[in-house]
Amino acid sequence: MKKNKAKMENTTKAELIKEEKENLSSALKEDEAPVTKKKKVSKAINVVVNVILILAIVFAVICTYVSFVTTSGNGVPSIFGLRLLSIQTPSMKPTINDGDLAIATSVKPEDIRPDDIITYWTVINGERVLNTHRVVNIYDGGGFLIFETKGDANTVVDTLTVHEREVVGKYQFRIPGLGKVFDYLQTGVGFFIVVVIPVFIFFIYHLVQFFRVLFEYQNVKNRIKFEQERDEAEAVAAKENEELTKQKERAALEEEIRAQLRAEMLAEMAAKGEIPNSGADSSENTSDNA
């Protein structure tokens, strides 16, 4: 009966522990639900910020490359064969406005036709500069071509004609207003704002993210270690309880066996008459005294 009672107590205790663990697990899941949602929102924000910063840096690198680093094909900045030209005057309005970024590509002189817009080297006010105007006439110079040009907003053709060797490229399309950005980048303040600051922000942001991930990793590591230590402590406590229960059961069984043996020995001694009769001895002593 005692063994059965102990087993029932152990079973009840195990069920209570199991139920408590299930309740704790459910509570943890409920607590983790808003945390998971916050993590998703934080991850989405990180992605958006990363994309914006990367685009800003790529744009800054392109602007730097075009404005300061490389020149290709008659000294005109070029990216993948596209020549980027900042329009400075309104002579091509309304086709191209001043402040626009004109995109031109290489062209063979023989492929140029009247009404094409070309970029070429010329001399204006004694200075060799790039100009972008429309071709109005083409002349044969005897082994080379001569192009006569005119700005769409001008009323007369250009004074100087263009030798085919001075042609830089043929106009393809424009990006409104971007030419001003390229011009601004050529200043120290513009380079600092458009290039240095985005790179600095990108670096600081990812440095903060690195330490944040490092701290989160450390917290998770400590939490796992704590849970392992707790599980080990619970296992040790459960083992000690089991040993204690076994010791109690063993002690109770030994006590029961001793009592049974004592009773059997007394019964055997009584059957053999080895146990003295206390009542008879008392009577004999009384007679002797009389």
How would you describe this structure to a colleague?
The protein has 290 residues and is an alpha+beta fold. It has a domain at 71-179: Umud Fragment, subunit A (Ribbon). It is 60% helix and 18% strand. The chain contains 4 helices and 8 strands, in the order H-E-E-E-E-E-E-E-E-H-H-H. The protein has helices at 2-69, 178-185, 188-272, 278-289, and strands at 78-79, 82-86, 101-105, 117-124, 127-140, 145-150, 162-163, 167-175. It has an 8-stranded antiparallel β-sheet. Helix 1 (2-69) runs antiparallel to helix 3. The radius of gyration is 50 Å and the shape is rod-shaped. Residues 69-73 have low confidence and may be disordered.
Radius of gyration: 50 Å
The appropriate CATH architecture of the domain at 71-179 is Ribbon
The major pleated sheet works out as: 8 strands, antiparallel
Oligomer: single chain
> Unreliable segments (pLDDT under 50, ≥5 consecutive)?
69-73
- Tell me the name of the CATH homologous superfamily of the domain at 71-179: Umud Fragment, subunit A
Shape: rod-shaped
Going by helix content, strand content and strand pairing, the class is alpha+beta
Order of helices and strands: HEEEEEEEEHHH
| Share of β-strand residues | 15-25%
Number of strands: 8
Helical segment count: 4
Helical amount: 55-70%
Report the average pLDDT across residues.
80
In angstroms, what separates the terminal alpha carbons?
56 Å
